Amino acid sequence: MDTQMHCDSFLSEDESKIAEDAKQRTQRILTDALNKRSCILVEEPENIAQPYKGHCPILSVRLVQDLLEELHKVTFRHREMHVTEDWIAYVYPASSKKIIYLCPKFWSQCQYLQKNSCPGTLLHEVSHFLGYEHRLDKPHEGGSHNLVLQQKLCPLTNYTLELAFSVYMNHSQPYTDGQYHCCGERDRDSVCEKSQMSREIRQATKRPLVKKTRRKVM
Fold it and tell me: Which residues form the Lysine-specific metallo-endopeptidase domain (predicted)?
């Protein structure tokens, strides 16, 4: 595949297929996360002691729903401006057109979820459309209600959000013989019910047992 980029140009047929495959993989990953919400997402943020001070970034169900909804609107183009070689992709967050501009480095990334992967990059870029930034000290202009709730629960940058999926929710063992051997999951594009994130969620939502008192018989 020729990865020579042209300013503000559409992708070739082969490039479009790779980008759309990455989008579909990412959609399946987000859908799987929602299906496993009881294990790896926070359904009721009010049950988490805030500010949360755990070992990995935790995400609300609303955030994952927003990512999935926003990703559905995304289209792809070649980069339209000169950028440094380490850039993978970029967006214009304030634009009504949900376009992810892909740079040459994108095409060499792994197609499956991991650090430095196509799904991780798409999650990173889509989060810009939701108001997330590269730094926590940068104000969120016009942030949504869901963004405000997430940042109260567990402040996220684009990078920590990407890591939440590519590292903390991801499978700890490889996919071989049609399954992930850490949990038995057969869907290639999925997250792990036995991941570090699931352990973190159990710890964060743990409540003390309520002792039952025996009523006296009068």
Answer: 73-131
Q: What is the pLDDT of residues 59-111, one digit of tens each?
A: 999 999 999 999 999 999 987 777 778 899 999 998 899 999 999 999 999 99
Amino acid identity, position 4: Q
Measure the CA–CA gap between 47 and 162, rounded to whole angstroms.
24
Residues in the chain: 218
64 half-sphere exposure, CB direction, 13 A CA radius? 24
Q: Tell me the pairing of strands 175-176 and 89-90.
A: unpaired
Cα gap 184→180, rounded to integer Å: 5
Using a 10 angstrom Cβ sphere, with 0-12 exposed, 13-18 middle and 19 or more buried, the burial of residue 141 is exposed
- pLDDT tens profile 149-169: 788 888 889 999 999 999 999
**Residue 101: what are its φ and ψ, rounded to 5°?**
-90, 120
Distance CA 113, CA 120 (A): 6
